[in-house]
Amino acid sequence: MTPEPLLSVRDLNVSFRTPDGVVHAVIDASFDIRPGEVLAVVGESGSGKSVTALALMQLHPKNTDITGSVTFDGRDVLSMSDDEMRSIRGQDIAMIFQDPMTALNPVFSVGHQIVEVIRLHSSVTKQGAWERAVDLLNLVGVPDPKARATQYPHEYSGGMRQRAMIAMAIANDPKLLIADEPTTALDVTVQAQVMEVLRDVQQETGSAMMLITHDLGVVAGSADRVQVMYGGRVMETGTVDEIFYETSNPYTTALLDSIPDLDGKKEELHPIPGNPPSLLKPPSGCPFRPRCAHAVDACAESVPQLEELVGTHASRCHRVAELYPSSEVMV
Amino acid sequence: MADTLDDVQTISEPPRRVPIFVPGEVEGLTTVPQSFGRLAWRRFRRHKMAIVGAVGLVLIMVLFIVGPMFSDYAFDERNIADRLQGPSREHWFGTDEIGRDLFVRTAQGGRYSMYIGFLVAVMATALGTLLGAIAGFFGGWIDAVISALTNLVLIVPALIVLSVFSQNFGRDAIGLSVVLTLLLWTRIARVVRGVVLSIKEQEFILAARAAGAGNTRIIGRHVLPNVVGAVAVEVTLLLGTAIVLESTLSFLGLGVQPPNASLGTLVADAKGSIESDPIRVLIPGFCIVWIVLCVNFLGDGLRDALDPRSKTERG
Amino acid sequence: MFAYITRRVLVTIPLLIIALYLVFVGVSMTSDPRADFYLCLPRCQDGFDRITEVYNLDVPIIVRPFVWFGQILRGDLGDSSSIGEPVWDVIKDRGWNTALLAVPAFLISASIALLLSVYSARRQYTFGDYFFTALAFIGLAFPSFVLALLIQNVLGVQLENWFGVKPFNTGRKSGEGLGELLRDMALPLLCLVILSISADSRFGRASMLETLNQDYIRTARAKGLNERTVVWKHALRNALIPLVTLWALSLSALLSGSIVTESIFSWPGLGPAFLTALGDTDLDLILGIVLFTGLITVIFNLIADVMYGVLDPRIRLG
């Protein structure tokens, strides 16, 4: 009944070789993204979410070891040649980066950069490509697109730059959009606007999206499914409703608790105590154990498995049955 | 001038893209905050080139200072009968045309060259830091004047200006050092000014004040570490440049004058007999190259160790 | 842009004048063209008076430069006492020789340095990178006179001793036909090229590396561009901005004449002329050369600034 997943990641492990040792940035990550689906990947800095995205597109730095399998549209990504990978990038999978000021080349006009990605993957004339670029800018809400296309990135405002990046990403109707913290570098007032553009664009083009963010507020309105990562591992995954209303993992609970309540109902702030784990020397057992209010001895002995609960809802916790009895269904 | 290093850009290695973590204590729960100094020292130690540079420098200085003690000959002792000999057991580097032992003379010249080099480095650093700090701190017309001064110094090619002034005013070590200093202070001044300017605007200064820190504390704890790092790197470059310029001037006859000798004058002396005895030219020349190479290695290592940008990055 | 240029010119010209003034006073303070004449007075009173007039020696030192300024503004650079020709002619002839070395040296070293920079930056931490880095380090550590003597001896003299052939002349521009000219130029050119490449390639490598680490390079790759396009279009275009500035300064340094290299190879350029002038205290020629090289520096600095503005749209369009 459910369609074949567009993207299928199994047991993904990404580690970097550094002079100080091996950094395990992503550990045993497995997830699917179906066509047209929006998966939000949530976590703090250093949780491995961006690294996952870069690994999918093979954009990682050189001293990286990747194991596992990544299947996109039926093809094995990790074993692809450079040429094959390049034909996918910008065409079938496109990425929107975090800081549009540094992600756009300052010496080429915005229009030129969009035209470039169009002409790279299709045999359109320069004229045709330019017209399409202007259309795209219009689609994402850049005012006066014809004139703006000839301008340079530094002449755009932050929000407009991100819109331009979005335009560039959807230029070739990609099947999968990866948005890596698209609003983090923007002013709060602009964040909502850009998210709206992103949402609209995704719905219109029907492409799947992997939305990486540390902002849970962004997730609620835009995503279908959520994946919570911590210390390089997937801690919990499920639909938006399941994650927000049937939370089944201490980390996710703590994360939700730590959001300040603007309605003023909560009195104190509840930050998560401690610091994110060192990816160089990860704590033994569950990565969240040192900061978990519900940790017991078993948590230090072994890493809990990602257990299936209901349907696609899964959680990684030794005590999931005790702590979240309503969610647990013995499969 | 094309053959001086006055405009050589600093050699730099940008920070690596890879996350570099400082291993923490227990289970990665907390990382021990490493003080800036310790972090720098650890990374300095890891930078082999810098160690090589430091060692090389020490080695040659030892050679210059201690070496002659093993030779029986004094600096200007002449044995005309032994003149123009090649290297031998008696005279390790041979003798010159009036019979002076070349090993002792080379050591002497080396010491003198390094003496002038260090003198210039110290004076230029002092002058540059002072002017740079004043310019950065006060801004306004003071800054404009000092910046104009900087540009003034750089307007005419270095060697030309140096030639003119050292011929007239640089006959002795102090004079020569002063002339070189007046030309070389600008890079340090520019760096210090930049650091002071950027610090002035930084929020951590405001934060420190808000936390109640007084001026001394702010300068000592916050301003100086940033300045020292950048300046240390420039100083090594300065030392290298000073030594090259001094030896070039001396080679041309415009710097160190007899009876003093520097590595430059030794090369000039040996130039005449280069076809028959090329070693005599190569030895002092090689000494200069060695010194500058070591100084550059040191500078590169310092830069890597002290550049706060290449600290930790999270994936 | 035009306003910017004008502003820069208005600022640097006074500085040049001040520099010239200082040089004038500096030289005048410690030298006296009449030194030889004191001994033969009162016999050579005529010669004495003539020199006094030519060099305005009865005018106080601090005022004398202005007389000279007035002279140059009228187009009169004076006569060279050491070479015996008008200063302007000397500068023209010698300057041409210097340019003959400087321009090819610049073109060759700039292109090679660029290729090395790109190569080193792309293949960072490989053997090739370390090798060229080591070469550059060594090249930078050589003072010009040591390098020149080494080259002259090894490739000039010793080559003949060992192999009996003399492909390169060891000095003097005899100018008898193109072949001879090339043989004369080869060694000093090599010397200048080695020195330039050592400096330029390190800077270029650093610039290129910094550029390659920028986010927009990752974006370019994410769009599916091949590595060649990423490097030669996206990266280079950005790295070129500071590089062009370096080129302007490099060329300006080369055109100012290399005192040491030209002297060692007996190449009749501005360098040896300057040394001769210094030795004889030929004030007019000294000042003429200082003025010339100062102007070149100022002009090329200006060119560098303008290029920066032209190449970087952030500056061009504010």
Walk me through this protein's architecture.
The complex is a heterotrimer of chains A (about 325), B (about 325) and C (about 325). Chain A is α/β, with parallel strands linked by helices. Helices cover about 35% and strands about 25% of the residues of chain A. In chain A, helix 4 packs parallel to helix 7 and helix 7 runs parallel beside helix 8. By secondary structure, chain B is mainly α. Chain B is built from 10 helices and no strands. In chain B, helix 2 packs across helix 3, helix 3 packs across helix 9 and helix 8 packs parallel to helix 9. The N terminus and C terminus of chain B are likely disordered. Chain C is about 80% helix and about 0% strand. The chains are: A alpha/beta (about 325), B mainly alpha (about 325), C mainly alpha (about 325). Chains in contact: A-B, A-C, B-C. The interface between B and C is large, with 54 and 63 residues.
Concise overview:
The complex is a heterotrimer of chains A (331), B (315) and C (318). Chain B is built from ten helices and no strands. Chain B has 315 residues and is mainly α.
Nearest-integer average pLDDT of chain A: 89
**Helix and strand run of chain C:** HHHHHHHHHHHHHH
Q: What amount of the residues of chain C lies in strands?
A: under 5%
Order of helices and strands of chain A: EEEHEEHEHHHHHEHEHEEHHHEEH
Sheet/helix structural class of chain A = alpha/beta
